[in-house]
Design brief:
By secondary structure, this protein is mostly helical. It has six helices and no strands.
Length: 191
């Protein structure tokens, strides 16, 4: 074999090794982004799950309170409206805004319940109130897990050199589940 052919084969081998290493790097990066993207999807599904659980408890709470405070029609309508907005939310931003509205409406509902001593002592009401408090904790926990998954993914798609591959593969930053500006306001209770 002559030296020219041997040199070409060595160069070709090095080029193939570099290409293979680059391909393996890109495949590994792609797979990592897919896993992180699916973690976000799973976390979002869990957020929706606990929001739905919370929304399912609300009619029972409202009916229990209605029995004692039938003339408080406006608050019952605002709770139902807020619950409907939460059920129709399609993005983390919409869900956060609807969740804040529902939290405010529930705060007013529970404040009304304070005016009815028999209701406060009612076993069903106490149980529902405890379930609702547990749901609030679940929502906070799952929202935190979702935002952690989004943070990890968003960091990955912004880092060098992943940013180039992420764009090439169509991965974009994901949206956090953030409380809307209305969540910063203390709910006002009117009697």
């Amino acid at each position: 074999m002559n030296k020219g052919l041997a040199g070409c084969l060595i160069v070709a081998g090095i080029v193939l090794l570099v290409l293979a290493a680059g391909g393996m790097f890109a495949a590994g990066l792609y797979n990592r982004l897919v896993v992180q993207d699916e973690q976000i999807n799973g976390a979002w599904a869990q957020v929706q799950n606990v929001l739905q659980r919370r929304a399912d408890l609300i009619p029972n709470l409202v009916e229990t309170v209605k029995g004692y405070a039938a003339h408080e029609k406006e608050i019952f309508e605002s709770v139902a409206e807020a619950r409907g907005r939460l059920a129709g939310a399609t993005s983390p931003r919409e869900a956060a805004a609807a969740n804040a509205g529902l939290t405010a409406a529930l705060g007013r509902l529970l404040a009304i319940a304070e005016n009815y001593p028999n209701l406060k002592a009612n076993e069903n009401f106490i149980r529902l109130q405890d379930e609702l408090a547990g749901s609030e904790n679940r929502v906070a926990t799952e929202r935190m897990r979702y935002n952690d998954a989004v943070r990890l993914f968003n960091t990955s798609v912004k880092r060098y050199p992943a940013v180039f591959f992420a764009r090439l593969f169509g991965f974009r930053e994901r949206e956090y589940f953030e409380a809307g500006p209305e969540a910063q306001q203390v709910p006002r209770v009117k009697f």
